[in-house]
Structure formats: C-alpha cells, structure tokens
Amino acid sequence: MDWSLPLNLSTQGVVIDRLFWIIAVLTGVAFILVEAGIIWFSIKYRRRDGQKAHYTHGSKKAEIIWTAVPAVILAVLGIYSGGVWADIRGASALPQDALTFNVVAKQFEWNITYPGSDGRIDTADDFVVRNQFHFPANEPVIVRLESEDVIHSFFVPELRVKQDAVPGMTIPIWFEATGTGEYQIACAELCGLGHYSMDAQVVIHDRADFDAWSAGQAAGN
Ligand SMILES: [Cu+2]
Predict the structure, then answer these.
(1) Out of 44-48, 199-203, 204-208, which region has the weakest mean confidence (pLDDT)?
(2) Torsions phi, psi of 33, nearest 5?
(3) What's the whole-model pTM score?
(4) Is the CB of residue 153 less than 8 Å from the CB of residue 171?
(5) Which helix (H) or strand (E) holds 175?
(6) Which residues, at least 6 apart from 88, have a Cβ–Cβ distance to it below 8 Å?
(7) How far is the CA of 201 from the centre of ligand 1 (A)?
(8) Which of 27, 103, 127, 167 is deepest in the core (most CB within 10 A)?
(9) How many whole angstroms from 96 Cα to the centroid of ligand 1?
C-alpha cells in the first residue's frame, strides 16, 4: 500500500500537503489515545464478582483539560488554515494578467476555451477543445470554472486543486505547475449516470511547446 500523497506539481502543494500532514498526525494521535483509553478503561473497570460499583461525579480538572486542549488545537488549526486559504484562494490571491482559460463542465465532459494566439480570453481567436486541457508550466494559470447543467467538481490531484463547478456561477481558480506531463481531470462530484466517464486529459507543456500546440489547434479550427 502506498501511503504517500499523489505527486505534487503545484507551487501551492507544499503548504497544502504540510497542512494535510499536520492535521493527519494530530487527529491520528488523538484517535490512538482515545481508542487505547476506551480499551484500557473497559478492562480495568470491568464488572467483577463481589466488587461494589463506585459512584463518581467525575473530575472537573480532567474535563477542563480535555476540553481546553482540543479547543486550543482547533483554534490554532483554524487560524493557520485560514492563512493558507487566504494565500491561495483569497480575494487578492488571484494573479494579475495570468493566462486564462474557460473550463465549462457538463454531463459528461469538460469543454476548455483557449485564449488563442493573442493570449487573451473572450476574443475572436478563442477556440474550444473537448476533454483536453493543455497549459504551460512555470507560470500562473487561471481557470474560470462554469457548469452548464448540474454541479460538477474540477479535480486534478497533482495540481492540488479541487473546486465545484456550480450552474450560474463563474468561479476563478489558479495554479502554477512546476513540471510538465500528462495527468487527468476527474469529476469529483457525483453528477449523473455518466459521472464515472467524466474525465479529461491534462497536458502540461513547456511554454514553447504550448504555443506550438495552440497555434496548431487554432490553424485547424
Ligand atoms: Cu461531473
């Protein structure tokens, strides 16, 4: 069994993965302590013949400790993850002038609108490719996510990005890939009978390769 996280190809991945491991270790330790306590107490204080039950109102001190410690841990995690969220998804986190793509989900496919040779979206030279998301590495990329019908979810584990596509909303997300390669967009929201087949190919290029690919697609349209 492979316990490691998927390959990280996102500049945002290091902080996300760190937060994941901090929470996994804290909750893992709490789980082991609680389960061990249940087993230990149920053996130590089990019913025995000839032994009278002991009635107790409990320990105020113990209750204060086991309430306050998790409360402090949760507050620290909340503040810490709030900072991570603000850096990645906050109102001012979206990069200015990044290459922008429209990704429109529908049952059961992903349609990607490319900015074309002028590098700008919503212009005459835009073109659409179904289930193929090509973009360049080593620069921030914005995806404007929409849905034509039901709620879908744009999920690329290697980019550490997962965002619902909601009908009637345009949701901008961004990421920067640190390497090239071919990966997969999987729809991560049960969206109908064909949900299992709703995937698209992600191809991350060097900038020069991306420009060449984009020019070839535009010429073919
Ligand atoms: Cu879907």
Answers:
(1) 44-48
(2) -60, -45
(3) 0.86
(4) no
(5) strand 171-176
(6) 12, 15, 16
(7) 14
(8) 103
(9) 29
Report how far ligand 1's centroid is from the alpha carbon of 196 (Å): 8
Tokens 């921030």 sit at which residue? 140
pLDDT tens profile 35-90: 999 999 999 989 899 888 888 888 999 999 999 999 999 999 999 999 999 999 98
Instruction: For residue 36, report the distance from its CA to the centre of ligand 1, in Å.
Output: 41
**b/e per residue, 171-193, with b = 16+ CB within 10 A?**
eebbbbbbeeeebebbbbbebee
pLDDT value, residue 58:
87
What does the DSSP 8-state code read for residue 177?
Answer: B
Q: How far is the CA of 190 from the centre of ligand 1 (A)?
A: 6
Strand partners, 112: 103, 129
- Compute, in angstroms, the gap from residue 168 CA to the centroid of ligand 1: 15
DSSP class of 178: S
What is the CA(130)–ligand 1 centre distance, in A?
Answer: 14
Crossing angle between the packed helical segments 60-89 and 13-44, to the nearest 10 degrees: 160
**Domains of the chain, each with CATH number or no CATH:** 13-89 (no CATH), 99-220 (2.60.40.420)
Instruction: Quote the CA–CA distance of 46 and 35 in Å, as a whole number.
Output: 16
Q: How far is the CA of 134 from the centre of ligand 1 (A)?
A: 20
